[in-house]
Amino acid sequence: MKQTIKIHDKFFNRYFGAEKIQKAIDSLVQQVHDDLGDDEIPIFIGILNGSFMFVADFIRVYPTNCEVTFVKLASYEGTESTGQVNELVGLTEDLTNRTVVILEDIIDTGNTLSKIYDIFEHLPIKQLKLATLFFKPDVFKKALPIDYIGISIPDRFIIGYGLDYDGLGRNLKSIYQLKTENIKNIVLFGPPGAGKGTQASILKEKYDLIHISTGDIFRKNIKNNTELGILAKSFMDDGDLVPDSVTIEMLKDEVNKHRTTAGFIFDGFPRTILQAEALDAFLAEKGEQINGMVALEVPEDELVSRILERGKTSGRPDDQNESKIRNRFNEYKTKTEVLKEYYEKQDKYYGVNGLGSIDDITCELIKVFDKL
Ligand code: IMP
Ligand code: MG
User: How far apart are CA 363 and CA 371, in angstroms?
Assistant: First the structure.
C-alpha cells in the first residue's frame, strides 16, 4: 500500500485504513439501533456525493428493517432579496411521520449541516437524527446537534473512502491526509496607494496562494445575504463601523472555504491589534501561523501624488482632494501602524521599498517571500 500519493497538484499521506473505518461504522450502527429499537423502520438519507461508501457499509450491518435513499444539496443564487438558496435534489419519498437518519460523510465548518437542518425542520417528520462518519471538532463552531460521531479528526483535509479532492480520490480504501509543509500565510501591508492590490495579484499566481481582501469579502457577504453579511450591513446602514468580531468571523469563513490551499495573502486584514490576535489564535488552532508581515514602504509625499494622479481618471472623489488624502494617512498611521510593532515584536516584519517600477517591486517582494 502506498504511503504517499499525488492527486492533481497535491501530495497526501496515508492516515488510516479500512479496518478503523469499519470499526467506527459498527459502533455508529449499534448506537443508532440501540436508540431506535427493533420495531422502528428508519429511513436513512445519505448526502451525496461523499457519503455513498459510508451509507453502503452502514446499511450492510444495520440489523433490522430500514429504508435508504440519497439526496444532493444544491446551492444557487436567488434574487437580490433571497440571496443563497438551498435545495435538496432527489428527494421523492414521503417522509410524513418517518424517523429520518441523515448520514453524512464529513462535517467540517457545519455550513452544510445548517442548510440541511433548515430544510428538514420544515418537513412533517416524526424525528430527525444525524450521524457523521468524520468530524473536525476544531473547525465546527455551530450550535447544532450531531447525534452520532464516528471518528473525530484534526483540521486537515482528507480524501478517500468517498471523499474527494477536486473529483479524485473517492475510490481509495484508506483515508489520506493532505501534506501541508510549506504553508505561507502572509499579511501584505502598506498605506493606501502603495500598490498592494497590484502586487498581491502577481504574487498569488507565483506562489499559488489565495488572496483575501477584506473589502471583497464584505461585498460578497452582503451581496449573497449571508448571516454575517446581513449583520455587517446593519452596522453600515446605521453609519457605524463593523465591529471586529463580525469582520473576524467573515475572514474565518473565507479561510475555511479554501481547504487545500498552500497559504493566503491577507490584504486589508488585520487592521487592529484585536484582529491580529484573533488571526494568530485561529491559525494556531490549525497548526499554522503568520509567516510574515510584508510591508510596502513608500514616502507619504510620493503616495499623495500617486493618488492625485489616479484621481484624475478613477473618478473617486476621495482621490482628488489632497487634505482628504492626508486624512486617510493619519488614520492609517494612528490605527494601523501599531500592527508593524505587533509583528516586529514577533520578528515577523519585513519592510520592502515600494518605490520603482511594478517589476522592480515584485522582485523585491519575491526575495522576501522566498525566505518565508
Ligand atoms: P462543511 O459545510 O464545512 O461542514 O463541509 C462539509 C462538506 O465539505 C463535506 O460534505 C465535504 O464535501 C467537504 N469537506 C469538508 N472537509 C473535507 C475534507 O477534509 N475532505 C474532503 N471533503 C471535505
Ligand atoms: Mg458531504
Answer: 13
